[in-house]
Amino acid sequence: HRINQTGEVIQEARDIIAETRPCPLPITETFPNVMACTWDRGSQWSLDHARQYRDEIKAWADTGVSVCGDEKVRLAWMGNALWSNTGFYRAFEESHGAVFVWSMYTNFLSRGYVRYFDGDPMRALAARHISMNELLHLPPWMADWVLHEAGEMGAQGVVNLVPIGDRLSANGTLLAKIAIEKTGLPVLDISANMVDARAWDNDQMEAKVGRFIDEKILSP
Questions:
Q1: SS3 call for 118
Q2: Contact criterion met (CB below 8 Å) for 171 and 139
Q3: Crossing angle for the helix pair 44-63 and 27-39, nearest 10 degrees?
Q4: 115, 184, 117: which is closest to 147 by C-alpha?
Q5: Which one, of 85, 97, 35, lies nearest residue 190 by Cα?
Q6: Dihedral sign computed on CA atoms, order 116, 121, 124, 128
Q7: How far apart are CA 6 and CA 123, in angstroms?
Q8: What is the rounded CA–CA span in Å between residue 109 and residue 166?
Q9: Can you spell out the DSSP letters for 56-113?
Q10: Where would I find the beta strands (DSSP E) of the chain?
Q11: Taking the model in full, what pTM does it have?
Q12: Are strands 73-78 and 187-192 parallel, antiparallel or unpaired?
């Protein structure tokens, strides 16, 4: 029950971000705050922290705090986070007025773990885990979820991390990309190891995303 309560609160926080223009907090704040609740789910600390997170976002939204006052573009991130360089997500705020507003970490606690099976805790536990890989990494669930979230968050483009050294996830994200592009939402692939920065060329990657924003989103 406490996992369900925590997930409901995280969804409320996500909804505030979706409804508020400009975006009230950077996506890099969702990574540690939501994931800490996710991996400690079920504890009273997790629920308390989720409530503090939601309440602070609401306070920021109510008082006009924003990531980028000149927000022009909203982006979604598909796949695992670029953990080796989370500053990358904020590199386009000044240059393009572009803000990342969603990743799977924003609310897979609410979409993946909230299950209501009163009196049958084993079924609830199984339901929270048996479909997790499909939701996060494999089409058609992955593509449908990203499309749903991108639409509600107002995202105008998707940046897709195609991981190096993880063939299953890479194939899943590429198939999801095809499905998403068929709806008219532009998708940019970035190939990288999410935790190993040795092959990462930051200048090249920032230029690649910058061109994507200019040519696929901002161009008439």
A1: coil
A2: no
A3: 160
A4: 184
A5: 85
A6: positive
A7: 19
A8: 23
A9: HHHHHHHHT--S-TT--EEEEEESS--GGGGGGGGTTHHHH-EEEEE-HHHHHHHHHH
A10: 73-78, 98-102, 157-163, 187-192
A11: 0.94
A12: unpaired
Backbone φ and ψ of 93, nearest 5°? -70, -50
Six-digit token string for 157: 């483009």
Beta pairing partners, 102: 76
Say whether 39 sits in a helix, a strand or coil. helix
74's tokens: 């909203």
Look at residues 97, 42, 104, 58 and name the one whose alpha carbon lies nearest to residue 78: 104
Predicted confidence (pLDDT) per residue in 162-220, tens digit = 988 766 677 788 889 999 999 999 999 999 988 999 989 999 999 999 999 999 999 96
Q: Which two tokens stand for residue 77?
A: 């991130």
Residue listed under structure tokens 């063939």: 167
